[in-house]
Amino acid sequence: MLLFICLIIVLGLWYWSQGTISVNSVSTPKSEMFYWAAITFSQTLGTALGDWMADTGGMGYVGGAFVFATGLAVVIALYFWTNLSRVLLFWFAFILTRPLGATVGDFLDKPIDHGGLALSRPLASAVIAAFILLCLFVVPQRSGQHPQ
Known about the structure:
By secondary structure, the chain is mainly alpha-helical. It has five helices and no strands. The radius of gyration is 17 Å and the shape is globular.
């Protein structure tokens, strides 16, 4: 809860100070400071949330990954079928990818008796790298524009 509060405070201060929390607006040392503080808190929050969901929450690695993947699917649906703030949706998606990565990574390399697949770290990393490469080839890529 403390990490979530810290993240909300950083995003609130960033918005109050700069008028936006869009990563596209990061072009000054001040906005970069807010950006990296938000990244730090959201990374830590997401990873802790993934660990909590898998261990303490009783969902296990697969159940936790399913919850966070479902959350991402909801964010994607909101992106395509609503006019919700794209910046807000970005931060929701960014935060949800952290616990998803943590639970999937744990599922791949934790012992079988703890609910994992017991792959070695190098093999688990290779599986994730192969998945990323597959996504790069399957999901259409388009270049963005850098803010002026």
